[in-house]
């Protein structure tokens, strides 16, 4: 597992190659199996492969959406805020599990933050909800841009681990 974590880097450039459905299903399984508070399972996913729709999602923020430009697939991570008072955490865990699965499958991904992000037309979350017909009670923490890597990022190594950030018993 630690090797997968070291290898997982934010990839923003992808090859123009469609992902097989069975690969997408494997990614979704990781998100669906992620733990949630009180095991309520409030997190849901919207898979987007249509290029025009992916471009619309990219335009929901002024900056930071470049990974969607060449992504073969985008997965919107949505959570029913009426079911979970910790929807941000539930969504984040699910998205992180999916990113680890994506790396394990030899693919790349980047987390495109949507919560508390804006563009000239307003709130990014609202725009994503409108584009994809997601109910208002759902929060959108991020969109995962996914595809075959077209970016060569070196994996982390032991020198990248800052052990000074670890404290025992007290700060």
From TrEMBL:
InterPro entries named in the record: Nitroreductase, Nitroreductase-like
The keyword ATP-binding is assigned to this record: no
Alphabetized Gene3D superfamilies for the sequence: NADH Oxidase (3.40.109.10)
Cofactor: FMN
TM stretches of this protein: none
Keywords: Flavoprotein, FMN, Oxidoreductase
One Pfam assignment: Nitroreductase
An annotated Gene Ontology molecular function: oxidoreductase activity
Residue ranges of every copy of the Nitroreductase domain listed in the record: 5-59, 66-148
Similarity remark: Belongs to the nitroreductase family.
Name of the protein this chain belongs to: Nitroreductase family protein
Organism, as annotated: Sedimentibacter hydroxybenzoicus DSM 7310
């Amino acid at each position: 597992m630690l090797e997968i974590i070291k290898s997982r880097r934010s990839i923003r450039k992808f090859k123009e190659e469609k992902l097989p459905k069975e690969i997408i299903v494997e990614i979704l399984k990781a998100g669906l199996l992620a733990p949630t508070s009180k095991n309520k399972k409030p997190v849901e996913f919207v898979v987007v492969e249509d290029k025009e729709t992916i471009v619309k999602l990219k335009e929901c923020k002024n900056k930071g959406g470049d990974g969607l430009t060449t992504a073969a697939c985008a997965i919107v991570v949505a959570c029913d805020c009426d079911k979970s008072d910790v929807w941000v955490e539930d969504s984040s865990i699910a998205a992180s599990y999916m990113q680890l699965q994506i790396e394990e499958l030899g693919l790349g991904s980047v987390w495109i933050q949507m919560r508390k992000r804006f563009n000239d037309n307003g709130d990014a979350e609202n725009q994503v909800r409108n584009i994809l017909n997601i109910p208002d009670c759902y929060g959108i923490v991020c969109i995962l841009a996914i595809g075959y890597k077209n970016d060569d990022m070196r994996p982390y190594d032991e020198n990248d681990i800052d052990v000074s950030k670890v404290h025992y018993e007290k700060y």
